[in-house]
Design goal:
The chain is an alpha+beta fold and 332 residues long. It contains 6 helices and 15 strands. It holds the Pfam family GalP_UDP_tr_C.
C-alpha cells in the first residue's frame, strides 16, 4: 500500500480524490523557515547540462536564439510524480459501495531559466514564451486517448505547495474531470440553458459597466477581482471575446495575455510584498465538443491566509479583504 496511486470517488458528493502515497518520497528544497529558500547551488533545476537533452519534452529559447544552451523554458517529465505515467485506459472499478480507478496520467514540469525571477519580475516576451510552451504541451497531451482534462498550474512559494524555489509550472493530464472544474462547467451550462447566454460574458459586461473590481484590461483580456472571491486578492484573467478553449489562442492574443499576466503578477509582487500564490487555467476538456457555453480563464490566488475550521468544516471561504478594496489596491 506504500506505493498506492489511485483515484477514489466520494460516495456522497460524487467528487474524485487522488490517493498518492508516492508524494511522501518527494524532497523539499525549502528550509524550515517558509520565506527562506535553500541556496541556488542545491537547486535541482540549476546547471541543466547538454547531456540531459534526451529528457527534454520541449525547450524554447528567447527570441533570436536557436541553441539549447540559450533555453528560456524547458519541459520534462516530473521525477517525483503523484500520478502513474501510463497510456493504458483503466475502467472505474466498483468494490462494494466504493468506486476507484488507477491514478494514471501525465505530469510534466515547465522550468524557467532564471532561478530567482518569478513571474512578477519577468518581461512580457518572457511570459509569452512560457505560454507557448503551455500550449504546445497541452496540444500534445490532448491527443492521448485516456486524457479527459489537462490542468496547467503554477505554485510559487512553500505556502502555495511548491517544493522547489526555482520558478516552474506543472501540467497534469488526468483521466477524470476534476471536481472544481466539473462544478464550473455544470454551473456555466446550467446558466446557458436557462438564459442562452454565457455567465462569464454577462459578469464581464457588469464589471465593465460598474468599474469597481477591474484591475487591468487591454485589447483582448480583462483582469478582475471576482465579486465572490475565494481568497483575499484573488484575481481572474478572462478573454474579452467568448472562447471555450485556451489552447487555440493565436499570436496576438498570446501577446495580450502575456501583457495581462505581467501587469497583474507584478502588481501582486510589488503591492502585496511578493506573497506565495497559485495560478491555474480552467478551460474546456479537450475531448468535450459541447462546451460552447464555457469561457476559459486564469485564476490567481495569493496564499495570504490559512484556512480554519469554518473553511474546512463548512466549505465557506472567509475573505478578509473585499474584492472592491483588493482591486483598488492592485490598481496602484
Amino acid at each position: 500500500m506504500n506505493n498506492l496511486v489511485e483515484f477514489r470517488k466520494d460516495l456522497v458528493s460524487g467528487d474524485w480524490v487522488l490517493i498518492s502515497a508516492q508524494k511522501s518520497k518527494k524532497p523539499v528544497f525549502f528550509t524550515h523557515e517558509p520565506s527562506k529558500a535553500l541556496p541556488k547551488s542545491k537547486c535541482p533545476f540549476e546547471n541543466i547540462v547538454q547531456s540531459e537533452q534526451g529528457k527534454n519534452l520541449l525547450w524554447l529559447p528567447k527570441k533570436g536564439k536557436s541553441d539549447i544552451k540559450d533555453w528560456w523554458v524547458r519541459v520534462y517529465l516530473n521525477e517525483y510524480p503523484i500520478l502513474i505515467t501510463n497510456k493504458t485506459c483503466s475502467p472505474v472499478i466498483q468494490e462494494g459501495l466504493f468506486f476507484h480507478t488507477p491514478g494514471n496520467g501525465f505530469q510534466e514540469l515547465v522550468v524557467m531559466r532564471d532561478h530567482a525571477r518569478s513571474f512578477g519580475l519577468m518581461t512580457k516576451e518572457e511570459i509569452k514564451i512560457i505560454l507557448e510552451s503551455y500550449i504546445l504541451r497541452y496540444n500534445a497531451l490532448a491527443g492521448e486517448p485516456c486524457v479527459e482534462f489537462i490542468l496547467i498550474l503554477h505554485n510559487s512559494g512553500p505556502r502555495a505547495g511548491a517544493s522547489v524555489p526555482h520558478p516552474h509550472s506543472q501540467i497534469f493530464a488526468l483521466p477524470i474531470i476534476p471536481p472544481d472544474v466539473s462544478r464550473s462547467l455544470n454551473g456555466s451550462k446550467h446558466y446557458f440553458n436557462r438564459t442562452k447566454r454565457c455567465v462569464h460574458c454577462d459578469m464581464l459586461r457588469l464589471e465593465i459597466r460598474e468599474k469597481k473590481r477591474i484591475i487591468y484590461q487591454n485589447n483582448s483580456f480583462i483582469v478582475v477581482a471576482p465579486y465572490a472571491s475565494k481568497v483575499s486578492y484573488e484575481t481572474r484573467i478572462f478573454p474579452k471575446k467568448h472562447e471555450p478553449r485556451f489552447e487555440i489562442i493565436d499570436s496576438r492574443h498570446k501577446d495580450d495575455l502575456a501583457d495581462a499576466m505581467r501587469v497583474v503578477l507584478s502588481k501582486i509582487y510589488k503591492n502585496l510584498k511578493d506573497p506565495d500564490y497559485n495560478f491555474f487555467i480552467h478551460t474546456s476538456p479537450p475531448k468535450t465538443r459541447r462546451s460552447k457555453h464555457y469561457h476559459w480563464h486564469m485564476e490567481i490566488l495569493p496564499r495570504i491566509a490559512i484556512w480554519g475550521g469554518l473553511e474546512l468544516g463548512a466549505g465557506i471561504d472567509v475573505v478578509k479583504v473585499s474584492p472592491e478594496e483588493a482591486a483598488k489596491i492592485l490598481r496602484k
